[in-house]
Amino acid sequence: MHAKQAVDYHGPSPPLSHRLFSLKTKSANEKPTMASFQPIDMAIANPKPRFARDPETNRSSRHCLLQMANYDGSHNYPYCWGLTIFRTAYGSDEAFTKAIERLNMYAKAWVYGDLARMPREEPKDPLPVQELWNRYYSEIVEDPALSGADVEEVGRRFDAWVKKNFDSTGKRDVPNARFRFCLMLDQQSIDTILAMPEDPESLRDDPPKDKRWIKLVTGEQWADRGWPNRGRLWGRAGIPEFWPMWFAIEDPDFIYEEQGWAEDQWSETNGALNFWGIPGIDW
């Protein structure tokens, strides 16, 4: 089997401020923020094949763009991808900022990984990758009242955020992963991110990579899935593998029940799933 060629993921991208928006404590009457992105160009997301079985039409970056292309007006984040990040550790602003920047680097590395090619394979069109990365937009919720908050409190804050930014009238389904789960950056998550190599390309030389995870908090209670005493459904996700979940969460039942593993699947009280490491070895 041929090894894939290395990819330069440091391609053109907008300034950091265009992709991250920090939300300080807001009043209940303040209008929610509206992300501003143009509709997706279908010539990029779904181009006509140049010939039979054209591999360019089956690129993962194009599939991701297609997934974001539909907008029904039910929410304030059209034509973009990313998460709401709840900060619960306030010891060091510098460490938090560095953790966010490091997290961005891994998101970008994942996106630009679509340019990897086999030896003698023709170069891939960089346009869909650039387009996908330019539409990355996450928000940071900073509120000192969240200092030391647990999963349940972050979950309640996330529920309120979803209610404010998503119109579920007419029994609309949740439009995308932004409204299914959020990131919780406590001190453990910040330390974990900062322990990752600055250069994602060097990750293969980083032995502890499979033992590092951050917290995802969903908008669900385990009671909705038949476990009334487990509380909030949340998970531990490996950083390199985390980003593809955004585009795979259209089927949350499969993600939560088939891909996520509980340390003790019969526990009445453990609400955590694991999306990292190896069952039976790492946990």
UniProtKB/TrEMBL annotation:
Recorded superkingdom: Eukaryota
Write down what this protein is called.
Uncharacterized protein
The protein's organism comes out as Colletotrichum destructivum
